[in-house]
Amino acid sequence: MLLELERVVAGYGRGGNILNGVDLVVDKGELVCLIGPNGAGKSTVLRAVSGLIPTRTGSIRLEGREIGSLSPQALLRLGISHVAQGRTVFPGMTVRENVLMGGYTIRDPKLLRQRLAFVEELFPIVVERAHDLAGNLSGGQQQLVEMARALMLAPKVLLLDEPSLGLEPRLSDLVFQKVRELCQAGVAVLMVEQNARRGLMHAHRGYVLELGRVRLEGPGPSLLDNPEVKRLYLGESGGS
Amino acid sequence: MHLFLQTVMLGVLIGGVYALLASGLTLIFGVMGIINVAQGALLILSCYFAWLVWQTTGLDPMWISILAAPLMFAVGWVLYRLLIVRVRGAHATMSVLLTFALAITLEGILGVIWTGNFRSVTPSYFSQSLRIGDFFFPTAQVYGSITAVAVLLVLYLILSRTREGRAIRATAQNRLAAQLVGVDADRVAAFTFALGAATAGVGGAILSVLYPFAPGSHYLWISRLLGIIVLGGMGSLPGAALGAVILGVAETLTSTYISLKWATVVFYVVIFVVLLVRPQGLMGTRLREDVQA
Amino acid sequence: MRKLRAGTWVALLGLSLILTACGGGGGGSSESGSGSGATSETAKAPIKIGISLPLTGPFTDPGVAAKQGYETWETIINQKGGLLGRPVQLVILDDASNENTVVADYNKLITQDKVDLVLGTFSSKLNYPASAVAEKNGYLYIEPAGGAPQIFERGFTHLFFAQQATAPHQADLFAKWIGSLPEDQRPKTAAYVTQDDPFTKPVIEGVKQQLEALGVKTVYGLEVYPPDTTNFTTIANALKAADADVLVHGAVFEDGVGLVRAVQQVGYNPKAFFQTSAPSHPEQYPQGIGAAATEGIFFAMSYSPAAKYPGNDEFLQVFRSKFGQDPAEDAADAFAAAQVLQAAAEAVGSLDQDKMADWLHHNTVQTILGPLSWDEAGRPQQAFLLAQWQGGAIQIVLPQDVATTDHIVYPKPAWPK
Q1: Are residues C325 and C246 part of one domain?
Q2: B251: which chain C residues are within 8 Å (Cβ-Cβ)?
Q3: pLDDT tens figures, C287-330
């Protein structure tokens, strides 16, 4: 397994635990979707993995190596990139500057150029809107720029927090299509999605999180058919 | 018409100096979310540095300002590591309290060492003017404005062309995202605070020629500088420059055409009106609570 | 019940500690409160004189100078066997330049410490409320500063200002000197500008009234600028446009320096230039405007070390040996206030506050500032010394009997290039 979480307990500052022992795994090239009600701890899982908050007990491993106590910078070097929830572009910088910021930790200019070329190929918008301020782009375009930025370090694991939030369907389809392309290229994607149906539809596997624990797990489409998931998250009555 | 032009030009000149003084304050707020009430005291500290060097060597204060920049950069770095770092992440009011305490402490130390007496730095040109046709320009203010423009230009180049500068801008625009791309927030904060202190270093050396100063002079300046950055938009460097020029011109126009009594008040009236229309200031962006880490 | 009582004890203990700590600022006075309130006239019991001064805060400099002046008087009088045969002990508190604290201080001195006498504090701002406390308690209040006209408009009977004149008359000798100039040399026009300050503004209003009475036409002002003004270039520009023969400026300090710099920058050269307060700082002023630029600038002073008034030599000698420097004007003013109190007590032969006040209303006291006498409201009836910067030093030019030179620089030379 590429990424493994085992009985992970975590929370913010001096506050109580948000995660109460989460177990999950993501493999290379796999798209895994986390769903669950508000406050279940979905985003917190991503923050614990990317090092924004420390793991209190339990273990997070990348390729078998314990990473639960590392800083965000160290995790970035090991290949974990995090695209946070909401619009997190740098609004006062151009699209190109935004994407280059993704390679902030790359000191070798040649490597930086290579990565930029790679990302530009994957995301044509980086070329088309290179000199526009990122803050002036539409929501979907900003989401693509954020993903492009996160890919500058050629991560092994990409953490996506609600990539389709506030996007019209056509644009969110585009975003999911890009996510799948990444998976095909071998990137492991762990994604939080508020829109459970859409998330599970695209995912290889899904986890249902509740009160900081994994309640259910299974292949994406089969979770979609689970009567409990249907009742709780898809707004359908269990009997249909 | 001549009087009007002369008045506006005088206002722009003094506004240039105000812009320099306000740049560090707005930078620190923009990047760190900290209102550095001690910025005025750092200015006065630099005034004393300029005064000491000028008295012992006779060096022109405009050159001293170049010495003061790295010195105050170091002072800022140390202050950050010792003090400011402890209120990182705390509510903004904590930073106000802490930096206010710092300001009073600096004032007290300066007072103990050099008493409460006013000091002045008076190079040969301090009371002279340059004349172009019918217009006059106080020499010290001209030098001050030129230095201000140079400092703002250097700041712009640092922010747009260097790696550290890009990290500062990224942190200012979205702290969480900056962390996620590998920016060391603590290092950026220390660098920013030090850079802000360095601008106070240059500003103080210039201020020492323009006005007499005493340890308590910082109150006057910090209130004025806070006004400037609120008007321009907290955290916006071009906003601070614009706000500063508006302050300068408002002062000179009011004292020429309306009344001296209103000269220092009118600026606050302008702030009041602008904030009614644009609560985020002239060039500010609305605070985005949703992306705060 | 027991618990409550214990709490009250702790509170009282804390309060008394705080009060003791406050009282400790007096320097030598440690014993307090033991007296039952009845001032026994034992021959050797010291006369306690309560004073609150701005020893910290914005008025620190005059406050500390006043403390030196008072202490010099204490030393001299105790060397001579004390006041009315009893030693004198000063109880000096620090009011931190704060109006509320100064009121609390004088209340404490009078009602708790039960001092025998009080002396005044510094600045009009602090003397205004402090004198009301003294008046309410029937204490004589002699203030070394506080010449703002409002202070004397409250019908107080125990208040006396121990300088030569109140603010509106500070520049009387300047106006008189202008009036004494021959018709063809006399300035024709004048400009008036002042900080919005309770002390400087009445001075400038007073000069304006007197010069207008002499037929000097007002061509600018009276313009008033706020205390936080730093930018004087536009004012100077307007002054240049008005181009008056006389410039009269009500300055505190940094604004005085600021305006002089600005009029130099615009190139406005008045024939005569009177400024309040700022020029009296013998070191900071020439540093601020440039030594050469001081030539010919007039100002008013209450005290000159060179003046040959009785007691001045002794004051200077003791002051220098105590503090190793020459007294500031504020120190001399405080000394003079104490001299006035001493004269009243000795004339009356007791510490009866009403009799002393009554005596001061009808007599003249010799001080190191010259003779002083008062009207019914405590306004002094004399004139300030007129001083002028000449050759980089301060000279007294009027009145003639204490003048240090008979030369007056007029017209004022152009600003140095």
Answers
A1: no
A2: 231, 234
A3: 899 899 999 999 999 998 888 888 999 999 999 999 998 898 99
In C151-310, the DSSP E strands lie at: 159-161, 189-195, 217-225, 246-250, 272-275, 297-301
Is C334 found in the same domain as C293?
Answer: no
| Domain edges within chain B | 2-277
How many percent of chain C have pLDDT more than 70?
A: 90
Nearest-CA neighbor of B210 among B151, B149, B143, B148?
Answer: B143
Number of domains in chain C: 2
Tell me the chain A residues in contact with residue B169 when contact means C-beta distances shorter than 8 Å.
90, 92-93
pLDDT digits (tens, 9 = 90+) for C172-214: 999 999 999 999 999 999 999 999 988 899 999 999 999 999 9
Q: Between 1.10.3470, 1.10.1740, 1.10.1060, 2.60.120, what CATH number should domain B2-277 receive?
A: 1.10.3470
Q: Which domain holds residue C272?
A: 168-301+384-402
Residues C398 and C268 in one domain: yes
**ipTM of predicted complex:** 0.82
User: Are residues C13 and C118 part of one domain?
Assistant: yes
User: Do residue C215 and residue C180 come from a single domain?
Assistant: yes
Using the Cα atoms of residue C333, residue C335, residue C338 and residue C340 in order, give the sign of their dihedral: negative
**B56 in C contact zone (CB under 8 Å):** no
Task: Tell me if chain C has a CB within 8 Å of the CB of B252.
Answer: yes
Check whether residue C25 and residue C140 sit in a common domain.
yes
State the nearest Cα–Cα gap between B242 and chain A, in angstroms.
18
Q: Angle C35-C36-C39 (CA atoms, 0-180°, nearest 5)?
A: 70
The burial of A64, by beta-carbon neighbours within 10 Å (0-12 exposed, 13-18 middle, 19 or more buried), is given as: exposed
pTM for the whole structure: 0.79
* β strands within chain B, DSSP E: 129-132, 135-138
- Spell out which chain A residues touch chain B, with contact meaning CB-CB distance below 8 angstroms: 50, 52, 72-73, 76-77, 81-84, 86-93, 97, 100-102, 104-105, 146, 149-150, 152-153
Distance from CA of C82 to the nearest CA of B (A): 34
How far is CA A114 from its chain centroid? Answer: 24
